[in-house]
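Bit of a strange request maybe. I'm writing a small parser for structure token strings and I need a real example to test against, not something I typed by hand. Could someone generate the tokens for this chain?
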Amino acid sequence: MKTLAIDTSNEVLGVALLSEEALIGEYITNMKKNHSVRVMPAIEKLLSDCETSTAELSKIVVAKGPGSYTGVRIGVTIAKTMAWSLGIPLVGVSSLAALAASARYFDGYLAPLFDARRGLLFTGLYQYKDGILETVKDDQNISAKQWAELLKELNKPVLFLGNDVHIHQETFQDILHEKAFFSGITENNPRPGELGKLGIRLTEDDVHSFAPNYARLVEAEAKWLEKQGDSHD
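Reply from user aminoacidic:
Good idea to test on real output. This should exercise your parser:
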């Protein structure tokens, strides 16, 4: 029983192979390169190095977003195609939850984030309770200032994680002061092994209806809806 985890939802590309007992192999890069031409060779290399054939896979776990629109779409498309062609279950896991999962050592809230441009970010709030990662606040698209003000009301230490934290770090420090903590560089890359671990026992999604979680309309859709609204005024 082996699970393949795939994450192309942001700049970091990650694939992992694991069983319920062990993380067998993991591949991670953090480079500005096209995931569409790199993810399948990465999967093939990982499976080859781990002496595993696709016929031995029992589940596909994919980071379903939020994140880069193109990146999320690439990972979900590949995961759905593999799951359907192999006849095995597909499970989608929040990209933010996968990022938060590495920080099980922190005694407080976990706030993973990806920059969403224009002062906005994709984020959610998590915590570990009895060794299980729990959602405190659902993934959302929000401004850094609004998010910091919301977290301030909770009056509890918050660990911010992600490669984009530095973009908003000053805002968090100004509002949260001593309650704001920041992860080290080795914790800012989402681990595909953590993604797989989160998804390994989850109930499968329907492979045909499964869709990414973009957490907001893509810009083209937003502009189209705005234009449609104007045309009815």
